[in-house]
Amino acid sequence: MDLEGLTQDLRDLGEAGFRQKHSSPVLVFDGDRDADDAASFHTAFAKRDPSRPLSAPPPPARAPHRPEVFTVLKRPGGPFEDRIGLGRARNADVHLPLARLSKYHAYVTTSADGAAYLIADAGSKNGTYVDGVRLPTREPVPLRDGCEIQLGPYVFQFYTSRGLVDLVARRAR
């Protein structure tokens, strides 16, 4: 999903319809991907044909950069019912296909009263930061609209559904 598609949703659905359709928080990634993050990158499976070379195909022509939006939502059947996992593994609740993330990098939970979102590092190799401060492993800290979350070298902005409406409305002007 990208911000242009969300802008069109806001125009088509109006604010109430947009909030209903996009009720989960999001991570907005507006950075450039590393060469290691090419579409050919993937976590290898145990069974593979040893006669096939591991070389990657040539990189595709570079498309115009568009910020990516990742919905922070529990995947049906995902592990750890009390949290939403973020990582590069395909079975992570929020699959972030970025080479320098851990397979299970961090996780998002809600406060006991359900009023706030929290993030914790899951013991990642390259760390998790909120607004420039490195998080201790497995110690959740609160998130606010527009805060900067750094997962390894990748920087995201966090938005609740309310903050997302404001962001998209500003960009639509």
How would you portray this structure in words?
By secondary structure, the protein is of the alpha+beta class. The chain contains two helices and eleven strands. It has helices at 3-21, 161-172, and strands at 26-29, 68-71, 84-87, 94-95, 106-110, 117-121, 128-130, 133-134, 141-142, 148-151, 154-159. The strands form two sheets. The chain has a six-stranded antiparallel beta sheet. Helix 1 crosses helix 2. The longest helix has 19 residues, at 3-21. It is globular, with a radius of gyration of 17 Å. The protein starts with a helix and ends with a helix. 25% of the residues are buried.
Descriptive keywords:
173 residues; alpha+beta; 6-stranded antiparallel β-sheet; 5-stranded mixed β-sheet; 18% helix; globular
Q: What's the layout of helices and strands?
A:
Layout: H1 3-21, E1 26-29, E2 68-71, E3 84-87, E4 94-95, E5 106-110, E6 117-121, E7 128-130, E8 133-134, E9 141-142, E10 148-151, E11 154-159, H2 161-172
Helix pairs in contact: 1-2
